């Protein structure tokens, strides 16, 4: 009887599916169990494979990594710094956009600067105030007085994309790497569907537009694994949540997808390939905004639309 109990105990200790060492992580979608060292190495190899599969980088790219100071972006910077050592003609630089969200972005910018310096990567911080003349909180205050229907994250997201592009151009970057994970990418596809706008690539390199091409090397990495990688590597990251986050439409989609993935592991991967099979086939005509000359799919880009609402109402 004692022997039976002992055997059961031995069988219950999870072991790494790759090397037989003690497992510390289970990939629910595949049933794979991984020890610390296999988890880290598979994580990094998957990023490299993603870069190759989606043809994200060229051998002589000047890569600008968009670093918010959150876990995903610091993990991305960490892994790309490691990968970059294998490609001596490539260079890496970090860009951080400070929207001006008091009590939130300050901590993130500090983490971004500290970690970038620790990894020996030059970091450039660009603020909304410098670029658009106002901080995000000032814009939100003014817009709410005007009774805008735009959500804070919609405004922030549109302006931040522009700011990243401006910062990348100033640094002569040939490509921008963002830290969107599998979860982010699938959430965005769902949001695009609900907005009736699936005709939009996310994170796939497109050199044919006026915008600096963007890639997302973590696009097939679940966010949960990025968190665990940060934990294992002891990468400090921002602990506060943006005060505007709970008001975002993305939050609702995220909650739904998180609980769906928990019940049906692997659903995010299924959704990603379904969306990619539709979106990656489309040809996108390039247009330039009639006001500012930046790339847009409309006549007047959304940045000019937001900024003009200040001019007409102030
Ligand atoms: Fe901007 Fe919304 Fe993100 Fe806050 S949660 S940083 S407002 S996009
Ligand atoms: Zn192992």
Write a structural description.
The structure is a single chain. The longest helix is centred in the middle third of the chain and has 19 residues, at 152-170. This protein has helices spanning 2-12, 36-53, 71-84, 105-118, 128-132, 136-145, 152-170, 182-194, 223-232, 249-263, 267-279, 302-313; strands at 25-26, 33-34, 62-66, 91-98, 123-127, 175-177, 214-215, 287-288, 295-296. It is of the alpha/beta class and 314 residues long. A hairpin with a 6-residue loop joins β1 and β2 (33-34). Bound molecules: iron/sulfur cluster and zinc ion. The site of iron/sulfur cluster has 10 residues, from α7.
**Can you list the strand order of the major beta sheet?**
5-4-3-6-7
- Structural class determined from secondary elements: alpha/beta
The number of helical runs is: 12
The ligands found in this model are: iron/sulfur cluster, zinc ion
Task: Estimate percent helicity.
Answer: 40-55%
Biggest sheet architecture: 5 strands, parallel
Defining key terms:
314 residues; 12 helices; binds iron/sulfur cluster; globular; five-stranded parallel β-sheet; alpha/beta; binds zinc ion
Helix and strand arrangement:
Elements: H1 2-12, E1 25-26, E2 33-34, H2 36-53, E3 62-66, H3 71-84, E4 91-98, H4 105-118, E5 123-127, H5 128-132, H6 136-145, H7 152-170, E6 175-177, H8 182-194, E7 214-215, H9 223-232, H10 249-263, H11 267-279, E8 287-288, E9 295-296, H12 302-313
Parallel strand pairs: 3-4, 3-6, 4-5, 6-7
Antiparallel strand pairs: 1-2, 8-9
């Amino acid at each position: 009887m004692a022997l039976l109990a002992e055997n059961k105990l031995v069988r219950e200790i999870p072991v790494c599916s790759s090397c037989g060492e003690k497992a510390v992580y289970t990939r629910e979608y595949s049933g794979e169990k991984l020890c610390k060292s296999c988890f880290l190495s598979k994580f990094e190899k998957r990023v490299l494979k993603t870069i190759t599969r989606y043809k994200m980088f060229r051998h002589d790219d000047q890569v600008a990594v968009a670093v918010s100071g959150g876990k995903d972006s610091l993990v991305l910077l960490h892994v790309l710094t490691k990968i970059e050592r294998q490609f001596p003609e490539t260079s890496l630089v970090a860009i951080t956009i400070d929207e001006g969200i008091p009590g939130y972005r300050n901590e993130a910018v500090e983490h971004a600067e500290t970690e970038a310096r620790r990894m020996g990567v030059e970091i450039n911080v660009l603020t909304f105030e410098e670029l658009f003349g106002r901080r995000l909180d000032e814009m939100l205050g003014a817009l709410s007085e005007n009774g805008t229907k735009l959500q804070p994250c919609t405004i922030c997201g549109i302006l931040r994309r522009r700011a990243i592009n401006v910062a990348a151009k100033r640094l002569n970057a040939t490509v921008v790497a963002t830290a969107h994970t599998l979860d982010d990418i699938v959430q965005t596809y769902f949001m695009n569907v609900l907005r009736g706008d699936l005709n939009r690539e996310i994170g796939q390199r497109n050199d044919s537009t006026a915008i600096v091409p963007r890639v997302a090397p973590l696009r097939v990495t679940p966010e949960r694994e990025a968190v665990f990688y940060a934990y294992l590597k002891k990468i400090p990251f921002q602990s506060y949540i943006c005060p505007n986050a709970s008001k975002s439409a993305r939050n609702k989609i995220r909650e739904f997808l998180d609980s769906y993935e928990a019940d049906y592991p692997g659903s995010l991967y299924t959704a990603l390939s379904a969306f990619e099979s539709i979106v990656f086939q489309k040809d996108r005509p390039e247009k330039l905004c009639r006001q500012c000359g930046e790339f847009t799919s409309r006549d007047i880009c959304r940045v000019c639309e937001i900024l003009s609402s200040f001019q007409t109402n102030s």
